[in-house]
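stage 2 :: seqdesign
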């Protein structure tokens, strides 16, 4: 008998749907206060997850999901850079 592995689930901060960790992109806040996309999912820092679509990122921006997750105000330049990085991943 094979063992059944548990699939790690995370909630998208844009659409609030639970999905497997591999389907989502991790956004991190580094200890220095930088906010980056983490394609590997292994970098150090506080993480929040968003679907791999621009619509979910737009919803997260509109609902201030990232600001709630990281408990800080996020400047518009950071959102712009996240959108550019998201375009390169698609």
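stage 2 :: out
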């Amino acid at each position: 008998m094979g063992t059944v592995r548990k699939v790690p689930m995370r909630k998208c901060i844009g659409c609030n749907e639970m999905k497997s960790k591999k389907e989502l992109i991790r956004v991190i806040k580094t200890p220095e206060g930088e906010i980056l996309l983490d394609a590997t999912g292994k970098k150090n820092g506080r993480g929040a997850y968003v679907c791999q679509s621009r619509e979910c990122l737009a919803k997260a921006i509109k609902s201030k999901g990232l600001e709630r997750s990281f408990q800080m105000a996020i400047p518009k330049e950071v959102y712009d850079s996240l959108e550019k990085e998201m375009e390169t991943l698609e």
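stage 3 :: structure notes
- Residues 61 and 79 are 8 Å apart (CA to CA).
- Helices lie at 54-62, 65-70, 76-89.
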